[in-house]
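[AMINO ACID CHAIN]
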Amino acid sequence: MQHFTAHLHDEEGTAALGAALARALAPGLAIHLHGDLGAGKTALTRALLHAAGHVGTVKSPTYTLSEPYSIQLDGRAVSVIHFDLYRMGSPEEFLDAGFREDFNGDNVCIVEWPEKAEGVLPPPDLNVFLTVSGHGRDVELQASTALGNSCLQRLKFAPNM
């Protein structure tokens, strides 16, 4: 499986990675974002959504748990659903909310704090690990399925040096 690591020197580097990921998206992709508070999970998602064509505010779904956005991928309308599970009390809340239905092969699902729904959350195609490092971030992308592998093969990103 494909694997990618880089050091992002600043917010612009995070935004550039988000833009590169936007160009590599495919319907059905599930991305799990891992990292401490302030590691850049929402910033990466915001940059991805804006680069994918969403015009307007991208808010963190900390209290709503999910926010859907409509984008175009290869001329096809696709929903990108941004989940933030930080405030979930138990994995059962994920099931009770009906979120599993969003992982249907048509939507792109981006999940912050996936460990909060461990055992009930569908597995990711792509894991993204963000770690604060100095003034920047270290990032690691790991594909875990053929769809995730395909996404990383399409990824065209040169980290800011």
